[in-house]
Amino acid sequence: MSRCVIISIIHYLDACTSEQFKCANGRCITNAYRCNGNNDCRDGSDEVTYACTSEQFKCANGRCITNAYRCNGNNDCRDGSDEVTCELFFFD
C-alpha cells in the first residue's frame, strides 16, 4: 500500500506539460478539462471563475462562452444563464 502512496505523490510533484493544466493540489489534467463544469482536479481549482474577454459572455457558473452563443436557444453555459432575458436583445 505504501508503494501506491509513493507513486501518487510522485505523480503530483511532476511538472505539467504545455497541454496540461496544473491544479492547485499539484495534479495535472488535460487543458480541455479546465472550466468544463466537472471537478477534474478533485480540488475544484480547474473550475475557478476567471475573467472573460470582451468577446465572451460570463455565465452564472463562471464559465466563459463566445458572445455568439448567447441567446441562441442552446444551453451553452450548462446552467441556462446564457438563455435568460434574451428577449431584451431581440427588438423588432
N- to C-terminal separation?
68 Å
Within CATH, the superfamily of the largest domain carries the name Low-density Lipoprotein Receptor
Name the beta content range. Answer: 5-15%
- Our count of domains comes out at 2
Structural class: alpha+beta
Rg of Cα set:
18 Å
Helix/strand order, N-terminal first? HEEEE
Helix content bin:
10-25%
Largest sheet: 2 strands, antiparallel
Per CATH, the architecture of the largest domain is: Irregular
Low-pLDDT regions: 1-11
- The strand order across the widest sheet is 1-2
Number of beta-strand segments: 4
Please report the number of helical segments.
Answer: 1
What is the highest CATH level, the class of the largest domain? Few Secondary Structures
Mean pLDDT: 78
CATH topology of the largest domain: Low-density Lipoprotein Receptor
What's the shape?
Answer: elongated
Membrane topology: Single-pass membrane protein
Pfam family, one: Ldl_recept_a
InterPro entries: LDL_receptor-like_sf (IPR036055), LDLR-related (IPR051221), LDLR_class-A_CS (IPR023415), LDrepeatLR_classA_rpt (IPR002172)
Main location: membrane
Outline of this structure?
The chain has 92 residues and is of the alpha+beta class. The protein has one helix at residues 2-13, and strands at residues 20-22, 28-30, 56-58, 64-66.
Describe this structure in words.
With 92 residues, the protein is of the alpha+beta class. The protein has two domains: 2-47, Low-density Lipoprotein Receptor (Irregular); 56-89, Low-density Lipoprotein Receptor (Irregular). The protein has one helix and four strands. A hairpin with a 5-residue loop joins strand 1 (20-22) and strand 2. The protein is elongated, with a radius of gyration of 18 Å. Residues 1-11 have low confidence and may be disordered. One of its GO terms (cellular component) is plasma membrane.
